Amino acid sequence: MTGTDALFLQEIRDELTEVLKPYQKQLAQRQRMAEFLTACIRCADRDDFIQLDELLQTKIAGDIEKEEELGGCVALLARLKSYADEKVERYRLNLIEDLAARAEEAGLPLEIDFPRFSSLKGIEGTIDFAKRSTLINKKAIKSIDPKRIISAILRVKRELYDRPYDAQAFIDGLYQTYSEILKKDGLSPGNPVPIQRFYFELVMSLQSKVFFQDMDKGKFRGYTLDQFAVDIWRYFQAGTGGTSKGYALQLRPGRNNSLWLIDSDGEKRQITGISFQKAEP
């Protein structure tokens, strides 16, 4: 094949690709619409009105109204939406009971003060019935389905509580970070350290040497604020009595440049400073 032939074929290939792109986009959109309608049919078969209500509030439900070939679906979907709206509204009264039952089945402690709820320390949420969404530890899920809410809570529980944890090693690690900050800043033992600075230094101390070589985010070891708060709570609960060197943790409350942590009473508080004091014999 000559260079001229190769150039000709490349030009044809590029032009055909450009012609094909909108066609493929249209096919993909039609496939999504077909899957959406299939999902609606499944929900109707099961009378899963919660899932049906959520489906009918998505963008693709509105897109179908603009699709001429699916014009016959518009009135049917409108009737389904009215049906789902009515049943979901009636279901509001049963939601608390259903949510509690699902939690019990999962062996998950759950306190409900509708629209708020809480589980283990550090896990709390709010149900926005009007928007058909639930907020769990500031993460939203577009659902009020008790099954999905409990599944989401269990995921958070695994992230916060199902990690290896040793209270003594944890508090000794905090003291190590605190001591290194004092050394860098030329501060005396017992001086408070700003909590945001401390949290940053703590997370950095968890990283491997490999991470610092190229700062690849794939090698970054995350340690969320929720995990930090729960680990502090678990330390208080363990009753280890302080660090191996005999220093006691102190958290200073405040509002400016603070972090929300869990204190020794199990209450969420805004903390501005952290220090370690020599425990009295």
Description:
- The strands form 2 sheets. Strands 1-2-3-4-5 form a 5-stranded antiparallel sheet, covered by helices on one side.
- The protein is built from 9 helices and 9 strands.
- With 281 residues, it is α+β, with helices and mostly antiparallel strands.
- Helix 1 packs antiparallel against helix 2 and helix 2 (49-55) packs across helix 4.
- The radius of gyration is 28 Å and the shape is flat.
Blueprint (SSEs and pairs):
Elements lengths: L2 H44 L2 H7 L3 H7 L5 H35 L5 E3 L2 E3 L5 E5 L4 E4 L2 E3 L4 H16 L5 H19 L7 E2 H11 L3 H6 L10 H14 L8 E7 L5 E4 L5 E11 L3
Antiparallel strand pairs: 1-2, 2-3, 3-4, 4-5, 6-9, 7-9, 8-9
Helix pairs in contact: 1-2, 2-4, 4-5, 6-7, 6-9
